[in-house]
Amino acid sequence: MMIPKKLKVIEVGPRDGLQNEKKNLSVEQKIALIQLLAESGFEEIEATSFVHPKWIPNLADAEEVISATKHLPINLFALIPNEKGYERAVKSGIHGGTFVLSASDSHGQSNLNKTTKESIRELKILYSQAKQDGLLTRASVSTAFGCPFEGITSLERVRQVVDSLVEIGFRRIGLCDTIGIANPYQTFEYMSKLNQDYKQVEFELHFHNTYGRGLANVCAGIEAGVYSYDSSIGGLGGCPYAPGATGNISTEDLVDMAQAMGIETEINFTELLKASELVSSYFNKPLDSQLWRTNSLVALNK
Amino acid sequence: MMIPKKLKVIEVGPRDGLQNEKKNLSVEQKIALIQLLAESGFEEIEATSFVHPKWIPNLADAEEVISATKHLPINLFALIPNEKGYERAVKSGIHGGTFVLSASDSHGQSNLNKTTKESIRELKILYSQAKQDGLLTRASVSTAFGCPFEGITSLERVRQVVDSLVEIGFRRIGLCDTIGIANPYQTFEYMSKLNQDYKQVEFELHFHNTYGRGLANVCAGIEAGVYSYDSSIGGLGGCPYAPGATGNISTEDLVDMAQAMGIETEINFTELLKASELVSSYFNKPLDSQLWRTNSLVALNK
Most buried residue among A79, A189, A198, B122 by CB atoms closer than 10 A? Predict the structure, then answer.
């Protein structure tokens, strides 16, 4: 088992987590959370989404959030779903864009109102614009392992999407297990082949812990040579257009596992737990991380 | 990534799970659970423990449980902590014994009132008795990856214990991550070396999901060539003498992952979920499996 010296952990809780919570936080609360996360040592945080507020009202304050956090010494990313969102994002002063599409047409139509091909056409325009505007770019492929409507996504299909993204110019490509049905064997198979065939691409993985396999999938990804992972503070998250999707893998559990394995993440765990506490106080509920459940249990039995 | 055709899943919920629950079940409830589990297709179930009722009152009914379930077409095991427990176990008509010791002296003294060496001396007698009596035997080494009092258990220490057990005659040796602090890298390192050095031994692994790494550790074990895993229905479990230990890995999540990976377990998942439902109805609480949490969430949002 080859383990790397370093894993890059990209915190996506403020976007993928908060967009799915029934309770919306205030702008001030979001800013405080992003600040605490930045102090924990993340190099990159996905802070919000420039999706239309009609679809995701929780993130209607994207401009205010970015305006108050863009001075932080990190790369601030936001999800950019379309041209309108792109315009808002650039105006806000964001540093980087996560450009999304779905590997499956039915999820794409449900989530973005576009087939995969239609997304690719739009991403071509947005990517070239982003390069002109000096934005950092990463593509993010939903349902790259499986789709709630179409089942398992074939490696062939993923290759087609990656081909198109590479042709556009993307060099950071995230593959998302939107509904948490990837398994470690599939992850290893897909990622070792993709890593071999696209040496110019830095792949990133985004797992949900729907069936408890999130960290097992991370380990399979590591073995296949992928060293960048999205995760969400407190395991917040889901997908409003993917029935049955639960939270992202928890940042706490991921960083804790990496530490135990001797892999550097540059996250200060003590600072990270302050962010956990803050999230828990905001929502007044237990977090969806195993670390949280265990600590609660220990406290209960004391 | 080499994956096996088949995984052996040994259900330990009726022992490792029930011993730790605050609410004790009736004999009839336990029997009904073991029957349902047997119908799910397990080859082996650890049904109870012949520990002194003073220490684990929940399992004081061991004789009654075995008497009512020993006709089932499975291998019924019970945990056997000492000579007195052995006598009771044999009289009960049990098919197999799980003979326990700790890899660390301080946990051994806390859990069994014996150092590792003292346990080894006693196991020698018990093993030879068990062979005479025609019992199936497996050894079970607590704190094989880490100890709540002594920290990480070195591979050297584990080797010493395995050497002693092999010398006694044991050919099935379970290594237990009693407090869930093993990590996938450690698991792979330890198990690939042990598997190489003890070709005559069938190693079994027993993980707790304390930090969410349970299934990741299973995958690391599989890669190292270990194909037998203890797990507990609903993730019940813990250790009364290991502060901070939470539940075993959940049988549902393990079987579900194996199925997704195309590995046969011979467990009928639909039948297994009936046992989950039964456990949940007994304790009237959510189960500690990700499958349970996800299904509850889906039901909640419908």
Answer: A79
- Chain A interface mutation, best of B294, B296, B301, highest count of A Cβ atoms under 10 Å: B294
Instruction: Please compute Rg for chain A using Cα positions.
Output: 18
Structure tokens at B90: 């044999």
Count Cβ atoms below 10 Å from residue B167 Cβ, excluding itself.
10
Contact list in B for residue A185 (CB cut-off 8 A) is 1, 3, 260-262
Residue bearing tokens 């684990």: B56
**Would residue A152 count as lying in a domain?**
yes
Cross-chain CB nearest to A213 (options B210, B243, B257): B257
pLDDT digits (tens, 9 = 90+) for B169-209: 999 999 999 989 999 999 999 999 999 999 999 999 999 99
Chain A: closest CA distance from residue B252 (Å): 9
Question: pTM score, two decimals?
Answer: 0.94
CA distance B218 to chain A (A): 8
Q: In A, residues 224-283, which contact B (CB 8 Å cutoff)?
A: 243-244, 246, 250, 253, 256-257, 260-262
Q: Say if residue B35 is exposed, middle or buried (CB neighbours under 10 Å; 0-12, 13-18, 19+).
A: middle
Does the distance separating the beta carbons of B181 and A219 come in below 8 Å?
A: no
Distance CA B48, CA B15 (A): 4
Q: Is B243 helix (H, G, I), strand (E, B) or coil?
A: coil
CB atoms A188 and B215 under 8 Å: no
The 10s digit of each residue's pLDDT in B56-110 is: 999 999 999 999 999 999 999 999 999 999 999 999 999 999 999 999 999 999 9
Tokens of B211: 């930090």
Domain that holds residue B115: 8-301
Least confident window among B1-15, B139-153, B190-204, B238-252:
B238-252
Q: Which of B145, B195, B211 to mutate to test the interface with A (most CBs of A within 10 A)?
A: B211
By annotation, the residues of B acting in catalysis are 239
For residue A295, what is the domain's CATH number? 3.20.20.70
A2 domain residue, yes or no: no
So what's the pLDDT on residue B67? 98
Tokens representing residue B112 in the block: 């069994």
Q: Which pairing describes strands A146-147 and A151-152: parallel, antiparallel, or unpaired? A: antiparallel
- pLDDT tens, position by position, A252-297: 999 999 999 999 999 999 999 999 999 999 988 778 888 887 877 6
Q: Is residue B2 part of a domain?
A: no
In sequence order, the 6+-apart residues with CB closer than 8 A to the CB of B24 are B18, B57, B58
| Interatomic CA distance for residues B257 and B89, integer angstroms | 34
* Pair of tokens at residue A214: 């999130």
Residue B61 domain-assigned?
A: yes
Indicate the average pLDDT of chain A: 93
Mutate to test the interface with B, among A293, A295, A300 (most CBs of B within 10 A): A293
Domain count, chain B: 1
**B296 interfaces chain A, CB cutoff of 8 Å:** no
Chain A residues whose CB is inside 8 A of the B223 CB are: 1
